[in-house]
Design a protein that fits this description.
The protein is an alpha+beta fold. The chain is built from ten helices and four strands. Strand 2 and strand 3 form a beta hairpin. It starts with a helix and ends with a helix.
Length: 274
């Protein structure tokens, strides 16, 4: 498949396809009868990561359930009391919207569709493809309204050491990011650490940048051009103005005795050379 993710997904939705559309290592889109039921992206927290970060289940518990599941892993978690069905649906909703925003905008991944493939959790939410694409565009506009610059999106989050006012007001998400920022983790890495969606983390980072609470990268400076040396205008090696057509330079004389004595010494020197 050589088309973009959006074009391929729209085509599969029109065919009422059921299976998994894999975008290389970047992520996977699961469909059921032409509708998206779950999306995973390498750069965003998955449903499993959201569950383990929240403390609902351990990483080992997720692996055990995944190995025993046959497309009904979500029901197994609900029966074990790990979370309610409604909580699982909201978790799938958040993870899918988060992954879709970052995955759909990628260019160049090799697409491969596997018919009939299902996610181990099962199906707990449905998204019409046009509505999902529209939501991604709405989120992009929201992100640009927060701060219309992507210069900090993939760079380590570094809070400023001093603020320019006596007090500031931050949201709970912004406060968590400021506390977790270690000067090395990017917004996507912080999202996985604190259990927030990558999109919500990115919005909060841009809002903090707009409020001058984050260190911005120094603008690239161009080296100053070196001054050019004057070029010679002819083959004689003389500088401009000192060629054959230049005026003869002679000392100007006045009526001062010093000038008269100078002329006398010059005359005596010339006569001595004869």
């Amino acid at each position: 498949m050589g088309d973009s993710i959006e074009a391929t997904l729209t085509s599969l939705a029109g065919d009422g396809a059921t299976g998994a559309l894999r975008a290389g290592r970047a992520g996977t889109i699961y469909l059921h009868e032409g509708r998206v039921c779950l999306v995973e992206c390498q750069g965003t927290p998955s449903v499993e990561e959201l569950l383990t970060t929240s403390g609902r289940i351990s990483a080992n518990g997720v692996r055990t359930t995944r190995q025993a599941a046959a497309g009904d892993g979500g029901d197994m978690l609900v029966r074990r009391g790990v979370l309610t069905r409604g909580e699982l649906q909201l978790c799938v909703l958040g993870a899918t919207l988060d992954a879709s925003f970052f995955l759909f905008g990628m260019a160049g991944p090799k697409l491969r569709f596997k018919d009939g493939d299902r996610h181990w959790l099962g199906t707990y939410w449905y998204f019409d493809v046009p509505a999902l694409l529209l939501e991604c565009r709405r989120r992009r506009a929201r992100l640009d309204r927060a701060w219309p610059s992507a210069e900090l999106d993939g760079k380590p989050v570094r809070p400023v050491r001093r603020i320019g006012s006596k007090h500031v007001v931050v949201s709970s998400a912004q406060w968590e990011i400021l506390l977790a920022a270690d000067g090395e983790s990017t917004p996507a890495e912080l999202a996985k650490k604190i259990g927030l969606s990558a999109y919500a983390t990115l919005v909060a980072v841009r809002e903090l940048a707009a409020a001058d609470l984050l260190v911005r990268p120094e603008p690239a400076t161009k080296p100053e051009p070196k001054p050019e040396l004057p070029r010679r205008t002819d083959r004689s090696g003389l500088r401009p103005g000192l060629g054959a057509q230049s005026h003869t330079i002679t000392p100007q004389t006045t009526g001062d005795p010093t000038d008269v004595n100078l002329l006398i010494r010059l005359r005596d020197a010339l006569e001595a050379l004869q």
